[in-house]
Amino acid sequence: MVNVNNIVPGSYALFQNYPNPFNPATRIKFAIPNAGLTTIKIYSQLGTDVSTLVNEELSAGTYEADFDGRNFASGIYFYVMKTESFTDTKRMILIK
Predict the structure, then answer these.
(1) pTM for this prediction
(2) Are residues 90 and 78 in contact, defined by beta-carbon separation less than 8 angstroms?
């Protein structure tokens, strides 16, 4: 995970991954206006937790995290960002 911008964003945001569809890797960008525990997890279509990309205390800023799908089957996956006061979900497609 990389902090790409130390400027404090005005609100929480979870952006669509790029590229999407992807093979084998994709990048997920997100912004947090307040410091705190932030988690981003990847789920299969069945709701199984398959990976945790972020699970740490972060300072305010904009970040990017990479997801490597080499060891996963083709299909639709969901990524969920959770903080103390924000939750959002996006969909991504892995094509092999």
Answers:
(1) 0.94
(2) yes
